[in-house]
Design a protein that fits this description.
Helices cover 19% and strands 41% of the residues. The protein has one domain. The chain has helices at 2-19, 154-161, 165-176, and strands at 37-38, 42-56, 59-70, 75-83, 93-104, 108-115, 125-131, 143-145, 149-151, 184-186, 189-194.
Length: 195
């Protein structure tokens, strides 16, 4: 039995020595993806991210996204929404890739993308708005649009993506038959960050 423990100890020390035998002149630290530099796209100049929970028509609406705008003008990221206030036959859950991000006044973001998940309307384009009202107990709640602007064509998506937030709210209200003052809602839990 002592031979077995001696063998295990020697094997362990051998692995430690082999694992530590390579030297490195630099330390590796965790990287904040929001501040990374893409060799092709350049540095990130704006980002927006959120994990939100709110009530729409008495039902929960959950949303999560991460969006980045690079110095070359391109955007990327991912989004996932699950809105129980929507008719499930219309697709109340969807996932996609961010294609557009524009920040207004340092705290309001317009985000757009294409649905790509195994649910929802794959290949359709979405746009939504979020407002970061700051951090801390005294800050008012962050705000997000209760719905998305949704279209089948990239041409229409790009038209709406490039409108100012107030006009996008008007487009959303027309699309969904809502009043404009019902489009933006405070989140109940979670956080929105726009930089």
């Amino acid at each position: 039995m002592k031979t077995f423990y001696a063998f295990v100890l020697i094997a362990f020390l051998g692995l430690v020595i082999l694992g530590c035998s390579e030297s490195t002149d630099q330390l590796v630290a965790p990287v904040d993806k929001a501040s990374t530099v893409s060799l092709e796209k350049g540095p990130v100049i704006n980002f927006a991210s959120a994990n939100t929970y709110c009530f729409v028509e008495g039902k929960n609406a959950i949303g999560s996204f991460s969006a980045r705008l690079y110095s070359d003008g391109s955007s990327d990221g991912e989004f996932e929404f699950n809105n129980h206030a929507m008719d499930p036959t219309l697709g109340n859950k969807w996932h996609g890739q961010v294609m557009f991000l524009k920040v207004y006044d340092g705290n309001t973001a317009v985000i757009g993308g294409i649905e790509t998940g195994q649910y929802g309307f794959i290949g359709t384009y979405d746009v939504w708005i979020v407002v970061d009202n700051g951090e801390g107990a005294n800050a008012p709640p962050d705000v997000r649009s209760t719905c998305i602007y949704w279209t089948d064509t990239l041409e229409d998506a790009e038209r709406v993506w490039n409108l100012p937030p107030e006009q996008i709210i008007t487009e959303m209200a027309k699309l969904w038959g809502s009043n404009e003052d019902e489009i933006m809602i405070s989140i109940e839990m979670g956080n929105i960050q726009v930089r």
